[in-house]
């Protein structure tokens, strides 16, 4: 564990200790996949409190850690509506003249306001709009100050968590692989050789259900979330058919 990871864990311990000593819920900012992996690897160290990860919707990639007291009415876990996460809808007001914007465009516009990356969770992009998850203490500033994305004038309003699930869009990917193991699946998704896919695993760019995956032989299950840094995020839909030669036709949905 390097010094940066040690400092990160030290901050988590400070928050969990505050939760334990004061008997109140305490939350982190949004964590990326690597930070979540570091936290989960040290989970036994936080046995004095209850710990939950949540990003505002079921398949969120960036998540906050919720530290809750063991007693005092917090035994059932956090209610999402009570979390310090606010979904903000960013809508273009340019009508038919709206210039298509990507995830990078929305994220860049938000960060250009001076907002720290940890204050922003996932961004779900639609046609002429996007949903941006942010921490509660940053939501009013974001809604008041964000005026444009790319060349589009935008208006920001508070949304509901239900809106996030309803407005996700996917691209369906199907293909044939020799075996149902991670290097073969990555080779399909990245359109590369299995040796290059293995390098991607060794470079610690692959996460399965939010946990770092470095195993070439890991076998995903139907419904698993696969994230590859620099490539995309996918839901594994499982095996559709198998050929007589033993190849398997698989299907995944890529988050747009």
TrEMBL record:
<dbReference type="InterPro" id="IPR036986">
    <property type="entry name" value="S4_RNA-bd_sf"/>
</dbReference>
<dbReference type="Pfam" id="PF17774">
    <property type="entry name" value="YlmH_RBD"/>
</dbReference>
<dbReference type="InterPro" id="IPR040591">
    <property type="entry name" value="RqcP2_RBD"/>
</dbReference>
<keyword id="KW-0694">RNA-binding</keyword>
<feature type="domain" description="Ribosome-associated protein quality control protein P2 RNA-binding">
    <location>
        <begin position="96"/>
        <end position="161"/>
    </location>
</feature>
<dbReference type="InterPro" id="IPR012677">
    <property type="entry name" value="Nucleotide-bd_a/b_plait_sf"/>
</dbReference>
<protein>
    <submittedName>
        <fullName>YlmH/Sll1252 family protein</fullName>
    </submittedName>
</protein>
<dbReference type="GO" id="GO:0003723">
    <property type="term" value="F:RNA binding"/>
</dbReference>
């Amino acid at each position: 564990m390097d010094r940066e990871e040690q400092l990160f864990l030290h901050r988590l311990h400070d928050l969990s200790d505050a939760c334990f000593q004061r008997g109140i819920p305490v939350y982190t900012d949004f964590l990326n996949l690597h930070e979540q992996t570091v936290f989960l690897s040290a989970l036994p160290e936080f046995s004095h409190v209850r710990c939950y990860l949540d990003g505002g919707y079921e398949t969120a990639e960036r998540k906050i850690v919720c530290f809750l007291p063991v007693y005092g009415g917090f035994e059932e876990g956090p209610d999402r509506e009570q979390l310090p996460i606010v979904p903000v809808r960013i809508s273009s007001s340019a009508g038919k003249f709206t210039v298509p914007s990507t995830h990078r465009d929305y994220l860049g516009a938000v960060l250009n306001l001076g907002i720290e990356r940890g204050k922003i969770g996932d961004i779900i992009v639609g046609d002429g709009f996007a949903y941006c998850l942010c921490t509660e203490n940053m939501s009013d500033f974001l809604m008041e100050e964000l005026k444009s994305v790319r060349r589009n004038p935008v208006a920001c309003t508070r949304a509901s968590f239900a809106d996030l699930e309803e407005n996700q869009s996917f691209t369906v990917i199907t293909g044939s692989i020799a075996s149902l193991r991670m290097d073969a699946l990555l080779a399909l998704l990245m359109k590369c050789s299995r040796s290059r896919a293995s390098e991607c695993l060794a470079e610690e760019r692959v996460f399965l259900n939010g946990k770092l995956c470095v195993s070439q032989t890991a076998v995903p299950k139907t419904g698993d979330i696969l994230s590859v840094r620099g490539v995309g995020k996918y839901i594994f839909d499982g095996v559709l058919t198998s050929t007589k030669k033993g190849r398997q036709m698989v299907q995944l949905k890529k988050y747009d």
